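Table 4 source record.
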Amino acid sequence: MLCAVSIVILLPIYLNVVNALLPVKYRLAYPPPLYPKDPTLSAFSLAISRGSMIRYFVNSTVVATAITIGEVVTASLAAYAFTFLDFPFRRPLFWSIVGSGIVPFEAIVIGNFQTVARLHWIDSYPALIVPFLASSFGVFLLSRAFRTVPADLIGSAQLDGCGHLRILRHVIVPVTRPAIGALAVLSFLGAWNQYLWPLLVTNRPDRRTIPIGLRSLAGGELNSFTVLSAAAVLTLIPILVLLAVFNRQLVRGLTAGLVGR
């Protein structure tokens, strides 16, 4: 069963790679080849040189990295407060934050766009980054992971005179590193693949990200589809590398909070 599901998921990626490697003479072949005959890398060079793909790649990297750092920092601070501090309305506030995650982004996109427009952030990095610096899912994930930290470690750190930030940095973060790493990976993937919001808040080509930039490669000539496939493969490389490197940490992180205190 798992093998069948894996084939269904990986088949479009494989066909995309095949299309990107096909030379011109095989692009209109019927039936389409299932493996690259006489493979060539010309489509990849065209994808890099045509349009502003390098600029789109840089924009996506900057935006995804900034959002990832912001989500990890804000989620860590909020999860620490909700887990270890006692203050009025702690539980209602926590569940209101977690509950906000079920609100679809499309329901708040108009309000967010109006706010960004009033701040004159259109066509700027803040418009792409600031609305996503906090994550209700990140708060929930890390709060569950933080609950698994032994209370003795917290007590020992407090006896040594550590404040809250030192406890978070030197005790909580090392113990819950898999969960924090999982949140970082998921945040990066989500930010890298955003389409609707960058399309709304950017008009200048030099501020657009890769999902929007891929559309600029579509044209009427014969090799447009192959160039588009090559560009899509190039955009997949950072994601595949990230998942390959942090796969084990991602699985451990997502299961770290299943057992709470």
